[in-house]
Amino acid sequence: MSDPTVSGVLAVRAQILARSQTLNRLTPPEVTPGAVSTVPRTEAPATFGDTLKSIVGKVNAAQEAEDVATERYERGETTDIATVALMQNRASISFEATLQVRNKLLSAYKDIMSMPLG
C-alpha cells in the first residue's frame, strides 16, 4: 500500500520540477542574472565600471521581476507558487552573489591601500 500523502507530495514535486524546467527553457540567456554569454563580442571590451553597472542592473531587474510576481500572487492574479518561489530564489541568490563580490572588492581595496610604498 502506498501512502496517499506521500504520493501527493511526489506529484506536486514532479509538477514543480517540470515547471522549473519549462521556465528555464523559456527564459532568454541575456535576461538571466549571472548568465555567461557565448556570443562572440564584436565591440570594444567594456570598462570595469560598465561591467559592474551591467551586473547590478541585471540583479535589480531580477529583484523587480520577483516583486511583480510576488505581488501578482498576493493579489490572486496567479496561482503558480512554484514560479514565484523560483523567481524569489533567483533574485536572492543573485543578490547574495553580488554582495559577496562587493565584499571581496572592498577587501582587496583595503589590502591595496594598506600596502607600504617603497
From TrEMBL:
- Biological processes, Gene Ontology terms: bacterial-type flagellum-dependent cell motility
Do you know which PANTHER family this protein is assigned to?
A: FLAGELLAR HOOK-BASAL BODY COMPLEX PROTEIN FLIE, PTHR34653
Write out the entry's keywords from A to Z.
Bacterial flagellum, Cell projection, Cilium, Flagellum, Plasmid
Q: Name one GO cellular component term.
A: bacterial-type flagellum basal body
Main localization is other
- Name this protein carries in UniProt: Flagellar hook-basal body complex protein FliE
Subcellular localization is given as: Bacterial flagellum basal body
Gene coding for it: fliE
Q: Which NCBIfam families match?
A: fliE
GO molecular function ontology, one term from the record: structural molecule activity
* Pfam families documented for this protein: FliE
Which family, according to the similarity comment?
Answer: Belongs to the FliE family.
Q: What is the lineage of its organism?
A: Bacteria, Pseudomonadati, Pseudomonadota, Alphaproteobacteria, Sphingomonadales
